[in-house]
Automatic annotation (TrEMBL), chain B:
Domain (PaaD zinc beta ribbon): residue spans on this chain: 116-162
InterPro entries the UniProt entry points to: Fe-S_Maturation_MIP18, FSCA_dom_sf, MIP18-like, PaaD-like, Zn_ribbon_PaaD
Signal peptide: none
Superkingdom of source: Bacteria
Protein name according to UniProt: Phenylacetate-CoA oxygenase subunit PaaJ
Membrane-spanning segments: none
Domain MIP18 family-like positions: 11-76
Organism encoding this protein: Marmoricola endophyticus
Amino acid sequence: MSTEDLDKDHDSVYDGLLDADHAGDDSQWAFGTDFEDPLAGVDTTLPDGADAGALAAYCLMLGDDALIGSHRLSQWSSRAHDLEDDIALSNIALDLLGQARLLLARAAAADPGVVPELPEGSPVPPEDALAFFRDEGGFRNVRLVEQPNGDFAETVARLLVTSVWRLALLERLAGSRDTVLAAIAEKGVKEVTYHRDYAARWVLTLAHGTEESRARLVAGLDVVWPLHDELFRTTDVERTVAEQQVGVDPASVADEVGVLIDHVLSVAGLERPTRAAAGPVAGGTGRDGRHTEAMGPLLAKMQVVARAHPTGLW
Amino acid sequence: MTVPSALAIASEVTDPEMPMLTLADLGVLREVEEEGRCVRVRITPTYSGCPAMATMRDDLVSRLRSAGYADVRVEVSLSPAWSSDWISERGRRALVEHGVSAPGPAPERTGPVPLSLLPTRREVTCPRCGSGETALVSEYASTACKAQYRCTACLEPFDHVKEH
């Protein structure tokens, strides 16, 4: 047998997919051979009187909360204490990634000016350009979602706060005059309901578990708390979209979120942490593109492959 | 011989992750419009992050093109949001036949979503032995849309499609 024949024997198992019979048959490819527009066929016309720039900026805020939160949760994959929770955290991350994709696509459709420029001929769709080609200052997520995971108890504490808050926002956003945002929110409500229940139940389990689990949860809540106030700080963009009835003023959900978190903490036999709010930096927070030092390394990891191949097709 | 309609062809395309179900049985196939050799199909994702959407689209395009439809467009429908109530009776039977427990009625949603601190209570029957003695293992399973259960009678684990 010649070397050539040997090589032939060791051809890739995927070669069969390239048979002439299947040429041009996209169904052979698990993820398709090109990108699809997640809003294909969805009417993305702006509602009357809605400001395109403000709507796009608002979609980036909610989209970035989901994208960066999803990235952090996905870092638990293969690292959780058991398979069930590994899968649960990954599925929560996947739900958020799906919401992020729709929200970033909605931002790009509302105002194409928000999408970073890419080299000519790049096949990168707008939502990917927003995720992978914006620099740190362009991200509008709250600082809480970008924090390192810490241990499982800290992740649960953070997920409790972020999911109670996000669900309260999405429930109201389902009534947005922007039918695209309303539809994204309506879908998201069903998903984040699970995230909130998951986090709240784990808070109770850890609080009533062992001395160690309770101590870790208390420590986790302490770490999370200083960035909690920022979730209810209204920016100009949020004020504008709330006035135009396309978005939600986060200050309007503060009471409800407080009641729900207090309820979970009281069933857990815990007090609200007393640590002081982290406050803005140079007059701004995550919503203004001012992030903590955790954000740079997170983006470096998340974006490096896409940036190395700006004309790559995945 | 009659030529099958685009609707009939699209209705036979199966879900990539639950191939015992057609997209029509799953309630993901929302609309098929046919005009001459052009077809417009609307599908809706089960969950926002459903990674199977591109595969569903490609499968639909491939099957309809093979059937002679030259212009096939697959569009996304986001509203109303998918509900597990849209899974057909035939779909539910197919799930159980393949060892997956079918969802009960989806929760009614009026007013604020209640916080639920106790494990979700469902009447779940083991799809393998038919016992009602089942226990929840995890609210998430092989996909986001399923929970994992085990049967305490026959001891087999199984997936349950969640009420959504």
